[in-house]
Amino acid sequence: MKILVGYNGTIIAKIALEQAVTFAKIFKASILVVTSTTGGSGETSKQLDKSRTGLDFAKKYLEKKDVAGELHELARGLSPGEDIVKFAKDNEVDQIFVGIEKRSKTRKLFMGSTAQYVILKAHCPVITVNSNFM
């Protein structure tokens, strides 16, 4: 069984990773931690450093919890939602975990919603976690 965690280093992403690890231990699954950036000239070195720092944390967390996993930093010119859905399908993922935040209608309009895209477009079940889960 393969579990994908959409990961951006935020607290809610860390909660999603924590829940995915619990699930992976129960079902003896491996975890694919995926972070997505648009890539190209639109990406700053600060954003890339943040992405890599987040993946370093995820790697150490998986090792600490003794769960098999892989880390993937995607920069394919897709939105994070598109990247996660495409990666999940291409890698025959069985379950996706994503963190969600409560956002105003205006913020959703201008910023979009990665989790909403994944929920609506994924080929497999998606589990969402929020900060109320803590």
What does this structure look like?
There is one protein chain. By secondary structure, this protein is an alpha/beta fold. It has a single domain, classed as Rossmann fold (3-Layer(aba) Sandwich). The protein is 47% helix and 20% strand. The protein is built from five helices and five strands, in the order E-H-E-H-E-H-E-H-H-E. It has helices at 11-27, 45-64, 80-90, 105-111, 114-121; strands at 2-6, 30-36, 69-74, 95-99, 126-129. It has a five-stranded parallel β-sheet, sandwiched between helices. Strand 2 (30-36), helix 2 and strand 3 form a beta-alpha-beta unit. Helix 3 (80-90) runs parallel beside helix 5 (114-121).
CATH class: Alpha Beta
Q: Roughly how many Å is the radius of gyration?
A: 14 Å
Distance between the termini: 26 Å
The main pleated sheet reads as: 5 strands, parallel
> Mean pLDDT score, rounded?
88
Give me the CATH architecture, please: 3-Layer(aba) Sandwich
Q: Fill in the CATH topology.
A: Rossmann fold
Largest sheet, spatial ordering of strands = 3-2-1-4-5
Outline the low-pLDDT stretches.
none
* Number of helices in the DSSP assignment: 5
The structure class reads alpha/beta
How many structural domains can be distinguished in the coordinates? 1
Shape verdict: globular
Q: Give the SSE string.
A: EHEHEHEHHE
Q: Roughly what percent helix?
A: 40-55%
CATH-defined superfamily: HUPs
Number of strands: 5
SSE blueprint:
Elements: E1 2-6, H1 11-27, E2 30-36, H2 45-64, E3 69-74, H3 80-90, E4 95-99, H4 105-111, H5 114-121, E5 126-129
Parallel strand pairs: 1-2, 1-4, 2-3, 4-5
